[in-house]
Structures are given as C-alpha cells and as structure tokens.
Amino acid sequence: MKIGLIIHSNTGHTLEVANDLKMKLAHNHEVTLLHVNSKNEEQSQKGFVELKDSPDINGFDYLVFGAPIHGFALSKTMATYLKQLQNKSHKNAFIFVTHFFPSPGLGGRQGLRQMIKYLTSKDIQIVNASIIPWTFGKRKAIKHLLSAFDIIEN
Q1: What confidence score (pLDDT) does residue 59 get?
Q2: In angstroms, rounded to a whole number, what is the distance separating the alpha carbons of residues 60 and 79?
Q3: Lesser CB count within 10 Å: N end or C end of the chain?
C-alpha cells in the first residue's frame, strides 16, 4: 500500500512523530513523507500564509496528516493547506496533532476538529485521531498512536 505522510512541523516535534510512524509503516508499505511549508513561518503564524510546499495526495492509497497546535488551534500553515487540498477519490486517513500542554482541551481537540472538518469536506474519512502532548506523556501517546496503525499493518 502507498501511504502519504503529510506533515507541517515548525519546531521538529511533529516531524519526530512522523519519523516514528514512517519507520513503523515502512516495514510493510511504501511510505512517502511530505512536508507542508509556508514561505515565511513567522508571518504564517500571524495568519498571512503563503504556501511554499503543498503536497499532492492523489497518488496514495492511505493518508496520515500531522501538524502542531499554535495558539490553541491547528497551525495556520496546515489549515491553509487543508482548505485548498484537491482530492480526486475517496481516501481514509489517520490524523494527529502535537502540542505543548498535557491536557487535550488546551488546543489539541480544537485542532483535531479543524482537521476533521477540512478533510471530511474533501471526501477523506478519518479512521483515527490522536493528540501528542509534548510536556507529559509524550512517549506513551506516541506508542499509543503507533499501535493504532496495527489495523493497516495486517
């Protein structure tokens, strides 16, 4: 199966999770890690997003989207990318967000809701969603996320 791992990572935390996922999935699947980037991240965080990298998802059988939480919401770079995303066929996806706070109610849930809203409007069905806190419980949350991928491993 061809899996597209589409991420936006500003500090490297989301990229760390994506690399763990890629290592796990690459044992049985063809995995491509693609980055969503803006031309100027500082301006993007203020809402002035001009995408530099905008990956095409149409060559993949399965998708994984990951992004950080900025200011209690999905990063503006990822939100902009998802709004303009072009999908030509029904797909399934896993989604995850990374954030600083240990409580999912401090941005994590809001970010996932945003991703779900954008992706379902593009005929992408969400199979699983995870929040990775970066202060407490990071390793446990990543391990839980990795175990969720066992359903496509078999």
Answers
A1: 92
A2: 20
A3: C
